[in-house]
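Bench log. Compound arrived from synthesis this morning; before running ITC I wanted a structural hypothesis for how magnesium ion sits in the protein. Inputs:
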Amino acid sequence: MNRIKVLPVSLVNKIAAGEVIERPASCIKELIENSLDAESSDIKITIREGGKKLIRVVDNGRGILPDDLPLVFKSHTTSKLSDENDLYNIKTLGFRGEALASIASVAQVRLISKTADQSDGYEIRIRDAKLYPPEPTAATQGTTVEIEKLFYNTPARRKFLKSDNVELSHISDIISRFAIAYPEISFSLSNIPARSDEANKIILIDLPAEPKESGVLERLSFFYGNEITEELLFAEEEWDRIKISAYLSLPTYTKPISKYQFHYLNRRFIRDKTLSRAVYQAYHNLIPQGRYPFVLLFLTMPSDYFDVNVHPTKIEVRFRDTWKLHDSIVSFIRKQLAEKISLSASIDAPGEPYQGKERVMQAIVDFFATSSQRDVSNQKPTIRAVSPQGEPVDSFRPVPSGQVSPQTPQNEIRPHLDQARVFQIHNAYIIQETQDGILIIDQHALHERILYNQFSRQVSNQGVHKQRLLIPRVVDIPKSKISLLQEVIPHFNKVGIEIEEFGGNTIAIQSIPSVLNNVDLSEFV
Ligand code: ADP
Ligand code: MG
């Protein structure tokens, strides 16, 4: 029978590293947190081979005292907590005292640090998990951590790493999270190309310090493109010692995936189901199904309102009053959106209250009035179209069977049209009476679906009909995404989109699949 034994420290650290250090980007996350906790104002990151060969983070923060240096790579060593009370009053990004120990157990690490009071800096290094004593070295104030050969001694982990470019994109994502929350800090990321040296490193991200309040938009435009900043509304509110600052996309601006939702608690990037649910609920009947808003929420609250000690990478927290927070956020977002699109103001107040069927009609029109703005962009919803008696007039008109407007993909819906009453609203939605309810068809979505089916058939039959553009379409992409381009170009080629780099942050689209004829190419790419 196997006996119970105490694990050696090196193995304990490797197990801890398994939770915290998944890839180069996780090292960078921990190092940036340490630099921010040390009150740095400038953080410079250098990598080689997607961070697998080398990660170096240089900061200008407070530094570490020479006597403390031998402790930094030991587990459960931290300057950020002293007693249990501190654990419920965490003001720093780090507090577990595990990051450097974890990293040192799976990589070769060197750390150089100098405080303001010392004349010399000191260097301490870990080679093959062996700690060497500190040695004096020339240094400026701050701390440099250099991580080489990540996972050199854990081949199973190394196998999970992806291509250099994919790792780079994870790194860029991590940096973007911090850069957006800390606009007053300058950040840079440089890449040393393979088979090249330090002198030839390429600067991929170079973000100067911005004013703390107004700099968020600068940072958003760097990572997500200029156009996003024009689509966001900013709002703030405070209640019960909770403050929320938010950048919210209008319902007219949506994304096809949900990843553009960023939640911060006391400037810590977190993932939280309650916050996601609140955002979903606030937007859900304002935007079409399958589309997502761009939302950035900064929550600030006293540390006894939540617990951050629930997840090794501190990406999850537990709120004290989850549902109250949820409801407050839903009503905050809805209020902001309603004010902006003057939802209620635009409804022609009828002399008498609606009743019965009329009320239902009005609810349907309200619903479409907000979501149809996306589809019929320059056509403001004409709510007045329904009379107080519920009589459809003008833009809310019954369509005789089989005679939907030319834009409607008739073939697909004709089978239903023969039997029932059909309405078309704002040339965007078709409502059909069915035996026991109504059927609502989003014309736009239906059309997309038909195109998608055509397109997938072509891709799987190896023959995408390509159309060469007479004049290549030039598109700007967010500067932060340029490094990913090499990775995605072959995939685009496969589906008939030929792209060439054009210099700077510009690309030229040379050909497109013919089914994408009417698509907004810059949005699509
Ligand atoms: P934690 O951040 O949870 O305390 P770490 O293992 O990340 O644990 O770091 C251990 C300690 O090393 C920190 O508490 C801090 O005192 C010191 N330290 C690490 N990085 C830096 C840095 N860049 N500048 C100043 N001190 C640092
Ligand atoms: Mg830390």
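What the model suggests: Residues 322-341 form the longest helix (20 residues). The longest strand covers residues 466-476.
ITC booked for Thursday regardless.
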